[in-house]
Design a protein that fits this description.
Length: about 325
């Protein structure tokens, strides 16, 4: 696309990333990059380097590789496969109005990297870049870290482009409607509604106290979906998963909530993860496998995970519409 000043605008789609293969070597490379990000672990660099290389990367890669192997497909990592489908779907949706707008896909960690995606846009001659991290809720550990990587990539550009940044879309009507529609489809398929648990990726409690809006945006998303579905208060809860380390994270915790619900007599449950735009390790293995087992072992009888929006038609249309509003 060429705007009024003849400056071509490109789009950068990003997500978290994934190892290149479900083995210990590839997972170690991925974790080394991921865990070295000061947005993820903020300990003094010298101290964290000793812990990371002396302990974490000696133990965790094999365990994580086993988890990835449980969800890996013939096409590859689910997150990357779905992200590529989203990329293709958005390109198709925008083709009529913006046939010349280059759209690149980059992962914050692993491949294809944000640096490689930015090189692709640079080769296309863009003078302006719309950065769209596919995280509905803003978090310093995800959204801000993405911007860090974009700025680092621009260090090699002789003339940096203007950046347009999408910080969040947790409260946009199209996103809320798409979530509500996916829940209704699940209920129709299973023959009726069930208790609904909204599970979001966790983060240390200290980040909330420091002013990160993630916690509040998660609650705002759920409030809007609950209103759209007209759910009574006793038919849903919100929780946080994927905690790491010994410090306190956002509560209530998903695993403890599921055990509590089962032990209190809850027999059937649906779990949805609205913070993930694409299914990945945290949804397919942690929620749909590990947490499912926790619920059933605690006395539950039926556990169904409602998939992420992925490349669902409504999701792609909503993302494309949001991009279109920026490009216009």
């Amino acid at each position: 696309m060429a705007d009024d000043e003849g400056r071509r605008t490109g789009v950068l789609l990003t997500n978290l990333g994934t190892p290149d293969a479900p083995d210990a070597a590839a997972t170690r490379r991925y974790l080394a990059e991921f865990l070295w990000d000061p947005r993820i672990v903020s300990l003094p660099r010298w101290l964290w380097w000793l812990i990371l290389h002396g302990i974490v990367l000696r133990v965790r890669p094999a365990r994580s590789a086993h988890a990835y192997a449980r969800i890996w497909t013939r096409e590859g990592s689910p997150l990357l496969v779905i992200s590529r489908r989203q990329h293709a779907g958005i390109q198709t949706a925008l083709a009529e109005d913006f046939p010349q707008a280059p759209i690149a896909l980059g992962m914050r960690y692993g491949n294809p990297s944000i640096a490689a995606a930015m090189d692709e846009l640079r080769a296309a001659g863009v003078r302006r870049v719309l950065v769209l991290p596919l995280y509905p809720q803003y978090s310093s550990a995800t959204t801000a870290s993405t911007y860090d990587a974009v700025e680092a990539a621009l260090a090699t550009w002789p003339q940096a482009p203007e950046l347009l940044k999408v910080t969040h879309y947790h409260d946009q009507d199209w996103y809320i409607d798409a979530l509500a529609a996916s829940i209704r489809r699940a209920w129709e398929a299973q023959g009726g509604s069930r208790f609904l648990l909204f599970s979001f990726h966790g983060m240390p409690e200290r980040t909330r106290k420091a002013g990160d809006p993630y916690y509040d945006q998660c609650h705002d998303t759920v409030r809007r979906v609950v209103e759209r579905l007209q759910l009574p208060g006793g038919q849903w809860r919100l929780s946080f998963q994927s905690r790491f380390g010994r410090e306190q994270w956002l509560q209530p915790y998903t695993d403890e909530t599921l055990k509590e619900l089962a032990q209190s007599g809850m027999r059937e449950i649906n779990v949805i993860c609205p913070g993930f735009s694409a299914d990945c390790l945290e949804t397919l293995e942690e929620i749909a496998m590990l947490n499912r087992d926790l619920f059933l072992e605690a006395g539950g009888e039926r556990f169904d995970y409602i998939p992420a929006l992925n490349d669902d038609q409504e999701h792609i249309a909503g993302l494309a519409g949001m991009i279109r509003s920026y490009l216009s």
